[in-house]
Amino acid sequence: MSTTIEQMNRVSFDADRIRADFPAATRTVHDGRRLVYLDNAATTLKPRVVVDALAEHMLLGASNVHRGLHYLSERATEAYEAARDSVCDFIHAAAREEIVFTNGTTAAINLVAHSFGSLLGEGDEIVVSQMEHHSNIVPWQLLCERRGCVLRVAPIDKNGELILDAYRDMLSDRTRLVSMVYVSNSLGTVNPIEEIIAGAHAVGAKVLVDAAQAVATRAIDVQALDCDFLAFSAHKLFGPTGVGVLYGKQVHLEAMPPFLGGGDMIASVRFEKTEYNRLPYKFEAGTGNIGGVIALKPAIDYVSAIGFDAIQAHEQDLLTYATDVLRGHEGLRLIGTAREKAAIVSFLVGEVHAHDVGSILDQEGVAIRAGHHCTQPVMEFFEVPATARASFSIYNTREDVDALSLAVRKVEELFE
Asked: Which pLDDT value is given to residue 69?
């Protein structure tokens, strides 16, 4: 039976109890081996309450939103807009008009690159960091090609930390936008985002925060951060795939032209001139992932009921334990040793290619990620082709870390 939100509020954090709410977390693989799911940085598993909400809409209420006068459309619209209110409260936005639904973090960043980017020109500078995901690099490169802007890259050190002094030194009156990750998906580094934002604002630049890896692990208050834009994906927050959120300060969204044209983003259309819809609908052309958006609300309710203090304490315990255990393996190299990290551990096992590590661990029932993690500049900096990455979440336990260690031992035995 699925744990209710009310029950969650009455009991202390218990990863085993939480695991029972995630059917995939209790399954077996490869002839009965217990699944140890440690690929949470790629996507999180889904609790029953999220799947139930999605199924209920698809089975009993599948209808379009905003456009129908019949019962199903009205109920779908109410649920869809309730999810927007939930997101607004979750990240402490000033107004619901500042919450734009997209199909993911990548789409949200591209929206800003195209729409806000259209206001930039020759010689304007955009600053990113060396640890960015490809989705926070390529859109800005494309913008630079279109508008003649200049992309500047703030360096990292051997621990995988942003070199703040170098970042500050490259800020100038030419800087128009800083776009940086809150938590690195390949290193686990938690960036000093408040200092990054303050530095950018000091020279008049706007800031976009890629919060894809941060949203499920720490409380986010966009007003306290004072970021101009923030993007995240539902599927890294125990919600469905194909749903993302772009937060933007209302003053910026008002000034930006639409990204896509079509239905729902218009107030009226004439061949002579089109009048655009009000916020946030100006940026939500076409039929979105209605069921996915509706199912984002119970995902937010679920993590909110647990509480981020409890989540961070649990995940930091797992990070500390996993780091100590893996360091006990002779020849294992950790990639990314920042002082402040999320529960992500990237590593190499001797000279074994990360893909081989991932394949062997999979046969032992341990699911990790192996590759460049869409951060090829990071791999180039550390002079490695790829890493194995274990990432932990609310349903993981120290027992999972022990299973990871035993599977790594299997790799060592096979390649000794």
From this structure: 87
The active-site residue out of 88, 144, 149, 374 is 374
Domains, the chain, ordered by start: 5-46+307-414 (3.90.1150.10), 52-304 (3.40.640.10)
Q: Which residues of 341-375 are buried (b: 16+ CB within 10 A; e: fewer)?
A: bbbbbbbbbeebbbeebbebbbebbbbbbbbbbbb
| Token reading at 413 | 């035995």
Write the pLDDT tens digit of every residue in 244-258: 999 999 999 999 999
Q: At what angle do helices 398-414 and 308-327 cross, to 10 degrees?
A: 30
Residue 11: predicted pLDDT: 41
Q: How many Å apart are CA 88 and CA 67, to the nearest integer?
A: 23
- DSSP string covering 243-294: -EEEEE-HHHHHHSPPSS-STTSEEEE-SS-EEEPPTTGGG--S---HHHHH
Cα–Cα distance, 260 to 91 (Å, whole number): 25
C-alpha angle 238-243-245 in degrees, rounded to nearest 5: 95
Looking at residue 207, its pLDDT comes to 98
Q: Are 393 and 58 in contact (CB under 8 A)?
A: no
Q: Is 374 a catalytic residue?
A: yes
Q: Report the alpha-carbon distance of residue 301 to residue 81 in Å, rounded.
A: 15
CA distance 211 to 197: 14
DSSP bridge pairs for 348: 333
Phi, psi of 70 (to 5 degrees): -90, 170
Report helix angle 138-147 to 105-115, nearest 10.
10
Other CB atoms within a 10 A radius of the CB of residue 203 amount to: 15
* Residue among 206, 193, 138, 185 nearest 162 (CA): 193
Looking at residue 12, its pLDDT comes to 59
Positions of the chain with pLDDT under 50: 1, 4-11
Interval 20-63: pLDDT, tens: 999 999 999 999 999 999 999 999 999 999 999 999 999 998 88
d(CA 371, CA 358): 9
Task: Tell me the whole-structure pTM to 2 decimals.
Answer: 0.94
Q: Say how far apart CA 85 and CA 101 lie, in whole Å.
A: 12
Question: What is the distance between the alpha carbons of residues 127 and 120, in angstroms, rounded to a whole number?
Answer: 13
Distance CA 347, CA 389 (A): 6
Largest Cα separation within the chain, whole Å, is 73
Q: Would you give the distance in Å from CA 258 to the centre of its chain?
A: 24
